[in-house]
Amino acid sequence: MSRTRRTAEERHEQFVAAAVTAFSHGGYAGTTTDQVARLAGVSQPYVIRLFGTKQELFLTAVNHAGDRIEAKFREAARREPTLASLGQAYDELLAEREVITMLLHGFTASADPAVGEPVRACFGRIYETVRELTGATDDELRDFFAKGMLLTCLGAMRVVGPDPAPRQPWMDRLLNTFGH
Q1: Which residues form the DNA-binding region (predicted)?
Q2: What separation in angstroms does the CA of 22 have from each of 15, 30, 31, 58?
Q3: Which residues contact 106 (CB under 8 A, 6 or more apart)?
Q4: pTM
Q5: CB 54 within 8 Å of CB 33
Q6: Are 116 and 60 spatial neighbours (Cβ–Cβ below 8 Å)?
C-alpha cells in the first residue's frame, strides 16, 4: 500500500496545527520544539529546519490564530458587516479553544521584545480589520474588543465554549450580561 505524499503546504499546515496545539497547552516557555515535532509526527531537527527557531514557530502559531479570527470576521461581514455579526462569529470561535488560548499565550509572552512586536502587529491587524469591515467608532471598537477579551479569558477558563467547567453562580450572572 502506498502512502500519499503531502505537499509542502500541507506539511506546513500540519506543523502549524501541531504548534498551536502544543503552545496552547504549554505556552511559550513551557513548550519545546520536540513536543511540537512529536505531535506532528516528525523529528525535532526537521521542525527547526523548517521554522529556524522555537520563537519563529511560536510566532507562526500566533499569526495562525490571528488569521483564523480575521478570516472568521471577514466571513461574517460578507453576510452582515456589523459588530453584532462579528460578535456572533467570535462566539463560534470560542469553540476553537486552542485558537483563542494560542492568542492569549502570545499576549503573555509579549514582554519579550522579539515576541511582543509581532504579537502587537497581529492584534493590530485584527483591530483594523474590524474597523474596516464595520466602520465602527473608536468607542464601539473599544467596547467590542473589551467584550471579546473577556470572552477570550472565559473561554480559556472553560466558562464558555465546548466542555465547560461546572457552573458557578458568578459565571451565570456574568454570562447573562452577554445574553449567553
Answers
A1: 32-51
A2: 10, 9, 6, 10
A3: 58, 59, 62, 65, 115, 119, 122
A4: 0.90
A5: yes
A6: no
- What average pLDDT does the chain have? 93
| Residue entry with cell 462566539 | 91
Say how many Å lie between the first and final Cα of the chain, rounded. 50
Residue that the C-alpha cell 452577554 belongs to: 178
Q: Which of 99, 23, 7, 9 is nearest to 56 (CA)?
A: 23
Which residues fall within 8 angstroms of residue 155, CB to CB, at 6 or more apart? 94, 97, 100, 101, 161
pLDDT of amino acid 4: 62
Alpha-carbon span 81 to 83, nearest angstrom: 7
- What pLDDT does residue 180 have? 57
**What is the number of residues in the chain?**
180
Locate 93 and state its grid cell. Answer: 470561535
Residue type at position 80: E
CA atoms within 13 A on the CB side of 160: 26
Closest CA to 49 of 61, 37, 32, 59: 37
Q: Which segments of 82-137 does DSSP mark as H helices, in order? A: 83-93, 97-108, 113-134
> What is residue 54's predicted lDDT score, i.e. its pLDDT?
96
